[in-house]
Amino acid sequence: xxxxxxxxxxxxDQRWRPLEFTEGDKVFLKVSTMKGVMPxxxxxxxxxxxxRPFKILERIGPLADQxxxx
Length: 70
Prior knowledge:
- 20% of the residues lie in helices and 21% in strands.
- With 70 residues, it is of the alpha+beta class.
- It has one domain (18-66).
C-alpha cells in the first residue's frame, strides 16, 4: 500500500505546477457543493462545475484574491 501511494505521489508531483495570478487576470470560479449542505435547486451530473470568468481586482494575500461581488 505504501509503495503504491509513493508511486502515485511521484506521478502527480511531476505534473503539478503552482498557479500565480496577478491583478487583471481572468479566472474561473469552481462551484462545488459542501457535504451535508443541500444545493440550491437540483444538481445534475452534467451541470457546469465552473462559473463564468471573473477579473481579479486585487491581491489580498499569497493565496487570496478579491473578485467582484455580484
